[in-house]
């Protein structure tokens, strides 16, 4: 990661790690509570809002919301874990859930399903918090190849993306010493009643979570999962997408 690849902005700026072997890191600012939107962005946001409304309405119109919900969550689990390099298919998942063999890739998909369903049950009674995210991380990492990456524990050392060395990595999140303050601001942001489109808030919470990269592994999957949880919690999806009576 090179500082000249990044510019200071309302979202953060490049900095340096401490210690004798210093390297470039990205230091996010607290989440902005207002975002100026240009005309092009406003038009695209309107299109996205309409698509979100159609998705929410499809659950209300369906005569079989349970089966559609079941399929949606599992398709999302397969897609999200595939981004991380797994090769499991939807057929593999259904076979495992009906008593078939559970390979390492399928276990990661099952863990994603467990984490999202736990999160959706939880937000019926409590808000999204760092503690809830930690609990979902435990479920996400249970019994998989990277289980040693401290499930449910906010990282206590550096991590990075795109290399075996932070000095040559594509992106290096802030040092672990900055995480508690960053996560506290992220948690405060979630329930705030801001004059801001919900999809913009959703983008900001996802951006900041991935920028902080608070766990040693599993941040990408958790970040994508949190998008659905946030939209459900805020009532922009009356239930999980196509998830009317599953929970």
SSE string, helices as H and strands as E: EEHHHHHHHH
Instruction: Count structural domains.
Output: 1
Helix segment count? Answer: 8
What is the radius of gyration? 19 Å
CATH homologous superfamily descriptor: Fido-like domain
Structural class: mainly alpha
Taking the sheet with the most strands, its summary is: 2 strands, antiparallel
User: What is the correct CATH architecture?
Assistant: Orthogonal Bundle
Principal-axis shape equals globular
Main sheet strand line-up: 1-2
Terminus-to-terminus distance: 43 Å
Question: If you consult CATH, what is the topology?
Answer: Fic-like fold
The multimeric state of the shown protein is: single chain
| Helical percentage | 40-55%
Question: How many strand units?
Answer: 2
Detail the poorly predicted runs. 240-247
Mean pLDDT: 85
CATH class category label: Mainly Alpha
Percent of sequence in beta strands: under 5%
List the helices and strands and how they pair.
Elements lengths: L11 E5 L7 E5 L10 H23 L3 H19 L6 H8 L6 H19 L7 H12 L37 H11 L8 H15 L6 H15 L14
Antiparallel strand pairs: 1-2
Which tags fit this structure?
2 strands, globular, Fic-like fold, mainly alpha, two-stranded antiparallel ribbon, 247 residues
């Amino acid at each position: 990661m090179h500082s000249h690849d990044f510019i200071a902005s309302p979202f953060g700026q490049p900095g340096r790690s401490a210690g004798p072997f210093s390297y470039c890191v990205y230091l996010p600012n607290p989440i902005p509570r207002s975002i100026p939107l240009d005309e092009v962005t406003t038009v695209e946001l309107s299109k996205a809002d309409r698509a979100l409304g159609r998705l929410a309405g499809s659950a209300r119109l369906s005569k079989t919301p349970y089966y559609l919900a079941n399929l949606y969550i599992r398709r999302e689990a397969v897609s999200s874990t595939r981004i991380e390099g797994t090769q499991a298919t939807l057929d593999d998942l259904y076979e495992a859930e009906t008593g078939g063999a559970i390979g390492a890739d399928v276990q990661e998909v099952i863990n994603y399903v467990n984490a999202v369903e736990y999160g959706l049950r939880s937000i019926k009674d409590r808000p999204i918090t760092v503690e809830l995210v930690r609990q979902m991380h435990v479920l996400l990492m249970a019994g998989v190849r990277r289980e040693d990456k401290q499930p449910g524990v906010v990282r206590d050392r550096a991590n990075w993306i795109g290399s075996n060395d932070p000095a040559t990595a594509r992106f290096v999140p802030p040092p672990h010493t900055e995480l508690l303050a960053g996560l506290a601001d992220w948690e405060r942001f979630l329930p705030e009643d801001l004059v801001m489109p919900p999809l913009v808030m959703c983008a900001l919470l996802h951006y900041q979570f991935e920028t902080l990269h608070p766990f040693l592994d599993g941040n990408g999957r958790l970040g994508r999962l949190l998008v659905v949880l946030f939209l459900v919690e805020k009532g922009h999806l009356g239930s999980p997408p196509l998830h009317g009576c599953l929970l």
